[in-house]
C-alpha cells in the first residue's frame, strides 16, 4: 500500500476525522472515514483542495477493473490532485505548512533497473494512487512523500495544479515522439487525453495539428483549443480508407507523428495508415487491451509504433507551461462538484456520461 492511508479500523485516532470517497463495489461509492498513516520524516500531510476524475476512475466504478488492475477490496478513488500542505516531516526542508502543491501520484521503489535507469514510470513495484490495492486521493487529507509534491507558482490555481496529472500524459507522449517544430501531428480522439496531447504538442512547437473524433462537440472544443483542423469520422472500421483520405486532405502535408489517444482497432488502423512512411504512431489511449491492426503494411513503410505508460519527470515542465501561459488547461474543466455523498455520485455519473463533460473536478 502507498502512503495514502489505511482503513479506519487501524489503531489510533486523528484530531479530525478524515473522510474519503471509497469504492465499495460496482457503482457503489461511499464517503467514509479514512485513517491516515503516521507522518514519516520525508513525508508531508496535504489537505486536498482539487481532485479531478479520470477515465480509469470511471472504469473502476463501473467494472472494478482497468486494464489488468482489479479492485478486490474497498479502495479510496482519485489520483489527479492538488492541495495545501498542513504538516511536514522532520527531514522535509523544501516545504512549509501553507504551501500549495500539485502531487505526482506514483511512488516507485528506486531500486529496480527501470528506476535506476530513470524510467521510473515502468517500475514493477509502483504504488500509484487509486490503482489496486493502493488508496487514492479523493479525501480531506492524505500523506505523501515530499519529493512527489511540486509547489505551485503564484499564478497557478489549485485546479490547474490537479490538471498537471492528465497533462503529464500528453507531455510524456510528446517527449517519447520527439515532437518539435518539424513534426506535423495527428491526434486520434478528442477526449481529455487527446485534448491535453493537442495542447502539449502545440507547446512543443508542432506547426500543424489535426484532431479526429466521432463527436461534434469535442471537435468544437479541440478547434477552440487551437487545432488547425478537425475531422469527424465514423465508428465503422470499414470506413478507415475513406477516413485516411479526409485526414490527409485536412493536414495538407505529411503526417509525421500520430497520437492514438483512444486505443481501438479503428483508431489505431487509421493512425498506421495515415502516418507518412518513416513516421511514428504513439499509442497513448488504451480503449482495448488487445487490438487487431494492419501492422505488416505499416512495417513495410517503416512506421514506428511507440508505447506510452503514464509519465516521468513531467510536473516541473507542466507547471512552467501553465505558469508561462503556453498551455491553458482551464477550458478543459467543464464541471465542478463539492465533496458530499450526493455530489460525489453526481460527479461520477456526469463524467461517465461523457457528452459535454470533459474534465469533472471536485473542490474540497
TrEMBL record:
Entry-linked InterPro entries: ADH-like_C (IPR013149), ADH-like_N (IPR013154), ADH_Zn_CS (IPR002328), ER (IPR020843), GroES-like_sf (IPR011032), NAD(P)-bd_dom_sf (IPR036291), SDH-like (IPR045306)
Cofactors (names): Zn(2+)
SMART domains: PKS_ER
Highest taxon in the source lineage: Eukaryota
Domain Enoyl reductase (ER): 25-362
Family statement drawn from the similarity comment of this UniProt entry: Belongs to the zinc-containing alcohol dehydrogenase family.
Protein name (Swiss-Prot/TrEMBL): Enoyl reductase (ER) domain-containing protein
